């Protein structure tokens, strides 16, 4: 079938709207009519060449839609089901899956054989699928383990945000760091992921949640998501400000930017025994420098892959959190744009002034 998609031909160049071909669903594959796709900073990393990816390709990975067709042996979903996609495609058979760490699965069994016809093509030639999804297109063809069905009363624009940013931020708080009621938390960077981490810390019952950014509007927004305190990083050293506010540092910090300095700052602002969780995508080749003696205080630094999710369990629960008013997704959406405006959406993202734009199909 034919579909409209935003194609990346080369890093550092605008995406181009093209008509592409999508193959019929094969065994265990599902065809989805895309409803909304979030414009995530992770995609921008690939556009800017900070992470390499074969081209041409269709980016996009934070999405929700409606099932249109299923392939052989698919029993989990049927035509008409509402679904959220997730880049944490799991095989269900490898060591990571069998030990409950499905977000780390990288099994090739959920992809098509490289020698066979691929899911996407462009003008008769190969078109690379981005992390099993490619959601900057009006249709997606994915493995059934790349999606989760959700209740039909969940608005699909909000549901799309759960597919990456919200799951990543909230999951890092719940699963990776395991924040407990009463703990002190700092969140550095208040884009979609950072605001979700603030919201997750509030749901987890953190006693103090310090939101840190350089944009005043985002600091104000963080208060609506549950921040008890805000720090303007442009007005002085955020590490010094956090340590003064807390009398020595926080128990948990979350880096949601993807920079060397903010990762190092997250470690520096910890109290003894604290844990820094790096959520942001730090560019390839970047080295993080930490002061060795700090480890004698039992401080820890760790990464988080998509919030250490078990998305088929987690995402329906996040939908329930939203529908009962705990998850603040309405304020997370900065704007709704058409596919033809996708380069404008990335330009807005680069300004740092928006939380999350979504592409509406």
What does it look like?
With 361 residues, the protein is of the alpha/beta class. The protein has two domains: 2-149 and 329-360, Medium-chain alcohol dehydrogenases, catalytic domain (Quinone Oxidoreductase, Chain A, domain 1, Alpha-Beta Complex), CATH 3.90.180.10; 170-305, 3-Layer(aba) Sandwich (Rossmann fold). The protein has helices spanning 41-47, 95-98, 156-177, 192-204, 216-224, 238-246, 260-268, 311-323, 342-351, and strands spanning 2-8, 16-22, 29-38, 57-58, 63-70, 82-85, 120-122, 125-126, 128-129, 139-143, 147-149, 184-188, 208-213, 229-232, 250-255, 270-278, 300-303, 333-337, 356-360. Helix 4 (192-204) links the parallel strand 12 and strand 13 (208-213). Helix 3 packs across helix 4 (192-204) and helix 3 crosses helix 8 (311-323). The radius of gyration is 20 Å and the shape is globular. It starts with a strand and ends with a strand.
